[in-house]
Amino acid sequence: MSTAPAPAGPDIAAWPPLDGAAAAHGPALLNWAADTSPKRPRVCLVRGARGSGKSQLLAWFLMGSAGHPRTVVHAAVLAEGMLTDAFAWELGRQLGYGPLSPTRLLDRLVVDQRPLMLLVPDLHRSGRGPADLPPARPATLVEELLVPLLELPGTRAIVEVGDSGLLDDWAHTASVETLHVGDAPSGPLAEPPTADLMAQVPRTRDGRPLWDQAPQAAREHALDRALLAPDSQQAVRALLTDPGYLLYGSSVSIAACLADERIPAPPGLRSTWRLAAPQLSNTEHDPAERAALLHAAALGTSPGLARYLLPLAEAHVFTAVWARPDAVITALAQVPAGQGELFAADPLGDVTLLDPATGLSSAPAPFLPPGSARPHGIAVHRDGSLLLLTDTGTLHPTGDDPTGVLDHIATHHGQAALKNPVVTPSAIGQCLRSGTTVVGDEQGNVHVWDRAAHYTGPRARALHAAPITAVTCLAFPDDGHTLVMSAAMDGTVRLWETSAEPMPVPVEQRPALVTSMAAADTADGPVLAVAWNDATLHLWHLPTSRMRQVPLLVPCRALALSPDSHLTVAGPDGAYALSLDTGRLWD
Q: Is residue 7 part of a domain?
């Protein structure tokens, strides 16, 4: 009997040339990373004095780590200047979850049992904000997030702790490997900058700072320096009341200061920052996108800041029209033949009409759902009657429907689910123009109901191999075609033109879940909006297959898109509406 040869370990020749601390300690670090046996510690602490080469060693390892499955680094989060929240936002982004709170991040990692290799440089330099508060101390990040991360059974980590003693107490009860790089610097130490950062910021003739022209160091550390100034209260207030600094400054430093209730802040700024900071902490967003995001976050809580940012936001490809951080919405649908009004459902089962200009409830729905119904999806027909999908997978027709179409659809799916629970409805969508209703089920099937021919039953196809999470459709009367769009728990988005067979491959597949979809035929052609659970929105221009990614401020559970490119985003943490510039969105 022959046995398969053991897979070869990583080859050090695939890494950059050994030099400095990497020459002395690189082989040992690589040996630890390559050994995934249960007897080997899952955590490697890199210790040493400032300037001894710790960061150079970690950089060397990271540059070659992707070449072998045992050494692949799934996330590398620079801890310098990080709060617990900011560390969690960045780690969540790198792992494909989007920016999450520490608690939600840990919950996701408990469920996601894939192995995790984590690289944490400069843990001993973490912390931000007023020095007398816990967020300024590295130990806070260790206690609140890092130790719970390291104790997850699938986590392996390389953590740079310097000569701080961080994680020493934890290491007494856990199995840890230690690399001591050295007690002395390997060369001359760079002196920390001492220049007055505010002096480096260009100003207008009347003395106002021009933060868009400021050096990066000034943007990043101006607030940190202000906390240490003799007149710190005045210096900090000057920055927190400067909209330009809020737009261009360090979102993490601002978050650290606003967490201190002793520091005065403009009305509503703390609420605005809690909403915006997770996305603003992403350094990949350009200034125009930052302005649009901050404007959207400020609309519902800080009107003065929103007014200042409006001209900048209007120059971007999306601009917030209204925001309601107090709204909790589980489902949305456009009102047929209306002026942009929306039906909106809340967790208690109430369905109301929303004013498209303000997002405020203007009236109860003319047809109220049964008291026990908790709508998670709404389809609206041209006569105003509603078909509600509840959280239990039941379809409820509501309103005066003399044709009996909605009753027929609900009965059909109810009877099918009784016979076979795997075909229980899980998503519902509509086309306002044609009256077509589309239903997705737990088995991955999509059912298209033509209002004019409902008596023949739906056209159905098995589009996915997992439960459907979102569906919508668009009818094109000029050519008689109907385009169905669907998404499922397998992370796929598919298109099906119902007069032909479904496309053999998905339009998109990601390691994330679609939470809602909406489509409309806009002045610039058909557009599909897809909300994902990693806090991103994908806007597809269907005629050209171009896609634009937009950051989401709140977890999205419901979308509505109107023909005039008005997009409403809603979920458990609030709702807001965007005006999309579809003429420039995909440039």
A: no
- What's the confidence (pLDDT) of residue 454? 64
| Contact yes or no for 101/85 (Cβ under 8 A) | yes
Q: What is the pLDDT of residue 399?
A: 75
Between CA 222 and CA 210 the distance in angstroms is: 13
User: Is residue 486 domain-shared with residue 403, that is, in the same domain?
Assistant: yes
The least confident of 359-373, 417-431, 547-561 is 359-373
Tens digits of residue pLDDT in 125-166: 999 999 999 999 999 999 999 999 999 999 999 999 999 999
The residue range of the domain holding 109 is 12-180
In whole angstroms, give the CA distance from residue 329 to residue 350.
10
Q: 308-344: per-residue pLDDT in tens?
A: 999 999 999 999 999 999 999 999 999 887 677 899 9
Express each pLDDT in 398-423 by its tens digit.
877 767 888 999 999 999 999 999 99
CA distances for 467 relative to 389, 394, 423, 513, 552, angstroms: 15, 15, 9, 11, 24
Separation between Cα atoms, residue 61 and residue 370, nearest integer Å: 61
Do 312 and 328 fall into the same domain?
Answer: no
The count of structural domains within the chain is 3
**Collapsed DSSP state (helix, strand, coil) of residue 127:** coil
Question: Pick from 272, 354, 366, 285: which is nearest to 558 by CA?
Answer: 354
Within this chain, do residues 222 and 154 fall inside the same structural domain, yes or no? Answer: no
| Shared-domain flag, residues 491 and 343 | yes
Residues 109 and 209 in one domain: no
Residue 34 domain-assigned (yes or no)? yes
Query: CA 247 to CA 172: how far, in whole Å?
Result: 44
What was the pLDDT predicted at 364? 78
Examine residue 307 and state whether it is found in any structural domain, yes or no.
Answer: yes
Cα 463 to Cα 431: distance, rounded to the nearest angstrom? 19
C-alpha of 504 from chain center: 29
120, 153, 180 - which closes a domain: 180
Does residue 219 sit in the same domain as residue 173? no
pLDDT at 2 over 60: no
Q: Among 125, 148, 180, give the residue marking a domain's end.
A: 180
CA–CA distance, 156 with 456 (Å, rounded to integer): 57
SS3 content of the chain, % helix, strand, coil (to 5): 30, 25, 45
